[in-house]
Specification:
The complex is a heterodimer of chains A (411) and B (218). Chain A has 18 helices and twelve strands. The longest helix of chain A has 39 residues. Chain A starts with a helix and ends with a helix. Chain B has 218 residues and is of the alpha/beta class. Chain B has a single domain, classed as Rossmann fold (3-Layer(aba) Sandwich). Helices cover 34% and strands 28% of the residues of chain B. In chain B, helix 3 packs across helix 4. The radius of gyration of chain B is 17 Å and the shape is globular. The two termini of chain B are 29 Å apart. The chains are: A alpha+beta (411), B alpha/beta (218). The complex binds adenosine-5'-triphosphate and magnesium ion (MG). Adenosine-5'-triphosphate (ATP) binds next to strand 1, strand 2 and helix 1 of chain B.
């Protein structure tokens, strides 16, 4: 090992000292910054990932819509099925209804799903908490969990559904009775808004409630594993022909604004938290500067022994690098440790403060998600090591500028 | 070849600017030291002894005059192999043990191998510190530290050792022992020695004695 690297190591970890206090404190500063970055980007990534998952799980990866209704959905489905990358399709209809259970009203979004094909596209059964998707028929309904709770419905309860068609008919002095449906299932996606305002019925019932005949509102498409949703959507659009008004949109395209905000938010957090590392780097710099001043005479001696100024500089730069490296490794360990324990920590915290409800309502999630992305982690590692090494640069420059004669004279 | 002096200085002058006053410290110093010769330099405090050693060691440049190491021009890159320096206040590196401090002199030139390690061990033993080789400088007495510094100065088998008041921080008895060790080792290895000292007895042990006054040897 060249002498400057050797000496850098020895100055950070002196022989015969079990606990290198100053080194550990400097590393801890960097480590805390890295830990916060890891935790924050992973949790942000987790939110983003869950939201994406939820969008895909409830809409499919590609969605087809026409300007109005899609009349001949069977033909459309056959055509789309030919497009490479398409695995399955399922038609849907959607709208808003009023729902009543024991005189408690609610105004959920209603989704009509095609029982034969829906699970090939959307993993609905994964989210059914009570009951069974196969029990759903034209006289039954599946409620989201929070909605069921708020109107006091459970499996077997009867609910009344008023569709906008009823109001339409009322204007013509016709009287239509609300549909009585039996609750056969309760689902929970884990997203506050979806869990409190969505109900599922069969497509046939929905067409009936809305007077659609055989028309639907759109078709959800599942694409092959690993295929690019944007590319498949493009292929579908091309296959439709010029005169068709049917439009395929990938979920990325459909939620562009939302995903952009999500990414922006994550970048902002990354940017802001990087300052923690910069602050830590400043403390590394000041402690290295102090060390240069404290070691002025030794630096003079190294020069007198024949050490070159640039090697003296390298000695201090390397110390910055080592502190950065050690701090980063420690910070990664602390960060992933904190992520592993996050839900226990939150449980204890919310139990102490009794704020579990608030957390779920405010953040839309019942658990703190985490989804570390390799690119983010590499970015954090590179940033913190580079910044720490740069922090060693000014002390190194000071040390290299010392003239041996003057350094040795200093008392 | 053996007649070439280890060091030869002609008309060295050096002055320092102190505020707006120029202090002329050296006003024309001539010095020749032959291989293996020991020379003592005495002089009052502030007479320029340390300044002269800095010029001889190439750490500082003279205002005028010429200086040659073994007949060749002074170059910073040659210093580590050509000469060893012993300072009044030891200047050991506190983070590493005695042996590593000795080895440091060679480490600066190249990554040390087995031969260098063996030599460092031998030198530590030669200065009577084999029991203390793994002690940190803080765990050594002043005399022991200066012996480590002597061993370090000898590490690269230099042609010349420059010693600036090596006993200045030591008590009389310890100082005598260090000087005897230094002179003995130089004689043994044929190394020339320039010894700056205030101590007449130490100066007398050298082959030649010089006195610096008013910027010249008298
Ligand atoms: N870098 C400098 N700047 C200004 N003056 C200096 C500098 N170096 C030395 N001097 C002056 O030069 C003179 C000689 O200093 P030097 O250190 O060589 O004396 P010395 O003979 O070694 O004294 P001592 O026996 O006390 O060690 C002193 O007056 C000192 O103030
Ligand atoms: Mg002096």
């Amino acid at each position: 090992m060249p002498w400057y690297l050797y000496l850098a190591l020895k100055q950070l970890f002196p022989s015969g000292r079990k606990f290198p206090f100053f080194t550990v404190i400097s590393m801890l500063g960097v480590a805390l910054g890295v830990m916060l970055l890891v935790v924050a980007t992973s949790v942000m990534g987790g939110f983003g990932y869950q939201i994406r998952q939820m969008i895909v799980d409830t809409q499919g990866e590609v969605q087809l819509r026409d300007r109005g209704f899609i009349e001949d959905v069977g033909a459309l489905q056959k055509k789309v099925a030919q497009v490479p990358g398409v695995v399955a399709t399922t038609p849907f209809a959607e709208g808003v209804v009023m729902l009543q259970c024991d005189r408690k009203p609610a105004f959920p979004v209603i989704q009509g799903v095609d029982l034969d094909s829906v699970t090939k596209v959307i993993p609905l059964d994964r989210y059914i908490r009570v009951g069974n998707l196969s029990d759903l028929d034209d006289d039954s309904i599946i409620l989201s969990s929070k909605l069921a709770l708020s109107i006091g419905a459970r499996i077997g309860s009867k609910v009344e559904v008023y569709s906008p068609l009823l109001l339409e008919r009322m204007k013509n002095d016709e009287v239509l009775l609300p549909r009585q449906l039996t609750v056969v299932g309760i689902f929970e996606i884990g997203h506050q808004q979806l869990d409190s305002s969505v109900v599922l019925v069969t497509l046939r019932l929905m067409q009936d409630l809305y007077g659609l005949g055989h028309a639907v509102h759109g078709v959800n498409v599942k694409i092959a594993e690993g295929a690019d949703p944007d590319r498949v959507a493009g292929a579908i659009n091309r296959s439709m022909g010029a005169q068709s008004t049917v439009q395929a949109k990938s979920w990325i395209d459909a939620n562009e604004d939302f995903l952009f905000v999500l990414q922006l938010e994550k970048n902002m957090i990354f940017f802001l938290l990087t300052f923690i590392i910069i602050v830590a780097a400043f403390s590394v710099m000041s402690s290295l500067l102090i060390s240069v001043v404290r070691k002025t005479r030794e630096i003079g001696l190294l020069g007198a022994l024949g050490g070159k100024p640039r090697h003296v500089a390298a000695c201090f730069c390397f110390q910055g690098f080592l502190i950065g490296l050690g701090g980063t490794v420690g910070g990664l360990a602390m960060g992933f440790g904190a992520l592993a324990l996050r839900n226990d920590a939150i449980r204890i915290f919310t139990q102490l403060t009794g704020s579990e409800e608030v957390l779920a309502r405010f953040y839309q999630f019942s658990q703190l998600p985490s989804h570390p992305v390799r690119g983010d982690i590499i970015m954090i590692i590179v940033c913190s090591i580079v910044i720490s090494t740069l922090a060693g640069l000014i002390p190194a420059w000071r040390a290299a500028r010392l003239k041996p004669v003057e350094a040795l004279r200093s008392e | 070849m053996s007649n070439t002096p280890i060091i030869s200085a002609r008309g060295l002058t050096k002055s320092f600017l102190s505020g707006d006053r120029r202090i002329e410290v050296l006003r024309g110093v001539d010095l020749e030291v032959a291989a293996g010769e020991s020379v003592s330099i005495r002089g009052e405090s502030g007479s320029g002894k340390s300044t002269l050693l800095n010029l001889l060691s190439g750490l500082d440049a003279p205002d005028t005059g010429t200086l040659a190491w073994a007949g060749a021009p002074v170059e910073a890159d040659r210093r580590a192999a050509f000469l060893g320096i012993v300072f009044q206040s030891f200047y050991l590196i506190p983070e590493i043990d005695a042996l590593a401090n000795v080895l440091m002199a060679s480490r600066i030139i190249q990554v040390p191998g087995a031969a260098e390690r063996a030599r460092a061990k031998e030198l530590i033993a030669r200065v009577g510190l084999q029991e203390r080789a793994t002690h940190l400088p803080a765990q050594l007495s002043g005399g022991e530290r200066q012996r480590v510094a002597v061993a370090r100065a000898l590490m690269n088998s230099p042609k010349l050792i420059l010693a600036d008041e090596p006993t200045g921080n030591l008590d009389e008895h310890t100082g005598d022992a260090v000087i005897d060790l230094l002179l003995g080792l130089c004689r043994e290895t044929g190394t020339a020695l320039v010894l700056v000292t205030h101590n007449a007895a130490h100066a007398a042990k050298c082959a030649r004695g010089l006195r610096l006054r008013d910027g010249r040897f008298v």
